[in-house]
Amino acid sequence: MADVTQELSINIDRLSQRLADLAAIGAIEGTEGCARLALTDEDKAGRDLVVTWMKDLGLDITIDGIGNIIAVMPGEGPPVMCGSHIDTVRTGGRYDGNLGVLAGLEIIETIQAAGITPSRPLAVGVFTDEEGARFAPDMLGSLVYVGGMPLEEALDIEGIDGAVVGPELERIGYNGSAPLPGLVPHAFVELHVEQGPVLEIEGVTVGAVESVQGISWTEVVVTGQSNHAGTTPMHLRKDPGFVAAACTQFARELALELGHPHVATVGRVELHPNLVNVVAASATFTIDLRNTNEATLQESERRFHEFLTATAEAEGCTVETRTLARFEPVIFDPVVVDLVESTATALGYSVKRMPSGAGHDAQMLARVCPTAMVFTPSVNGISHNPAEYTSPEDLLAGANVMLHTMLQLAEG
Ligand code: HGY
Ligand code: MN
Ligand code: MN
User: Fold this and answer.
1) 372, 207 contact by CB (below 8 A)
2) Do 114 and 261 have their domain in common?
3) Which of 177, 217, 317, 373 is the most exposed place for a label (fewest CB within 10 A)?
4) Are 253 and 374 part of one and the same domain?
5) Same domain, 170 and 55
């Protein structure tokens, strides 16, 4: 196998072109970004395009009951797998998830062109509904892939728009029959944009990701009493909109008190009837809490819930909560992390070991095989925003680190 040198390199123009071609599906006008919420027509169109590219590479393609697409080179034994997701949030960038999938295709095309046949086959996975923005939890497809959730339970999940996973999968034609849990890889590596500011601020080209922080998503429904905005004295109100706003303020104050890396986000808020002159009848909102430390994450959940309960009671409102996602922090395989780090150094790139603030499919594959991630910098640390950008030089670096990491895993 070729040494770890730039002599064997991916083709950045071909990778950039595929990123552009995929981003054209669900393109957000006037931006570089795209919107392909899971299991929508746009997601289907993106899947169809990626499957075409997989077929062009002569890969063996399987689709399972939750719609995960796994493409494997010819060969014997468990593959060295990479991959990610191609579903996006509603204000998505073109790199989040897409890079990990398309760099995998680029790597396979590169080694085929070089006439290299690894001892273990390489594979690329496209995992369904990583974002969890339409159908919670996030990382749904990879969670089912590793046996973390029964398929039947996943197929019954109702989305924020009332659609249900199973019928939507059928509607877009990706309710496959490949067995679940899925094929256990020899190892898994995910290339992903950092989606944060650390690599850029520190002037580092590659992230060797050691862990993913814990994630807690809860949907809260506060019910009060709809009333006239002009005639209802303040002391007689039962205003769920006020409770939602007070909880948003508390979440921020609690995060600042707990300090970095704790983060808290109220990302979705829906008042009903949502009218200028009506004290709301109900407020539905989500709270996303994250921390690298499980005990601190649990403390934040407890304190948030206590504040919510006390504030709603004082306002004469009732509360219902529903857990949308709850994943503990995940530590990646130190051997694979070391390999990412040593490979980046051998290729002449600056590299930093770091945690991931975002959730990723790799945190699920880590349950079944040695797993780690490669990060590339995000300009201005921006993501989940159409302005998301990573330079071709950094994309090249990240993809080459993944190429050589995968080849070493295939020979190791
Ligand atoms: O929410 C996340 O961290 C990921 O983008 N699904
Ligand atoms: Mn992602
Ligand atoms: Mn994302």
Assistant:
1) no
2) no
3) 177
4) no
5) yes
Ligand 1: which residues within 6 Å by Cβ? Answer: 130-132, 138, 358-359
Mean pLDDT of 221-230: 98
Has residue 374 got a pLDDT over 80? Answer: yes
Q: What is the pLDDT of residue 43?
A: 98
**Distances from the Cα of 108 to the Cαs of 7, 11, 93, 246, 322, in angstroms?**
16, 11, 24, 51, 42
**Which of 301, 327, 353 corresponds to the end of one domain?**
327
Gap between the Cα atoms of 66 and 240, Å rounded: 37
Q: For the whole model, what pTM was predicted?
A: 0.97
- What CATH number does the domain containing 351 carry? 3.40.630.10
Residue 123 lies in a domain: yes
Ligand 1 atom index nearest CA of 195: 5
Q: Which tens digit of pLDDT belongs to each residue from 37-76? A: 999 999 999 999 999 999 999 999 999 999 999 999 999 9
84 and 26, same domain (yes or no): yes
Q: Which atom of ligand 1 is nearest to the CA of 358?
A: 3
Query: What is the spatial distance between Cα 159 and Cα 168, in angstroms, rounded to a whole number?
Result: 10
> Tell me, what's the pLDDT at 2?
54
3-state class of 244 per DSSP?
Answer: helix
Same domain, 57 and 203: yes
In this structure, are 176 and 243 located in the same domain? no
Q: How many CA atoms lie within 13 A of 193 on its CB side?
A: 29
Helices (H) and strands (E) in the chain, counts: 12, 16
By CB atoms closer than 10 A (0-12, 13-18, 19+), residue 383 is buried
Residue 266 pLDDT exceeds 80: yes
pLDDT of residue 1: 46
Q: Which of 37, 128, 131, 192 to mutate to test the pocket of ligand 1 (most atoms within 8 A of CB)?
A: 131
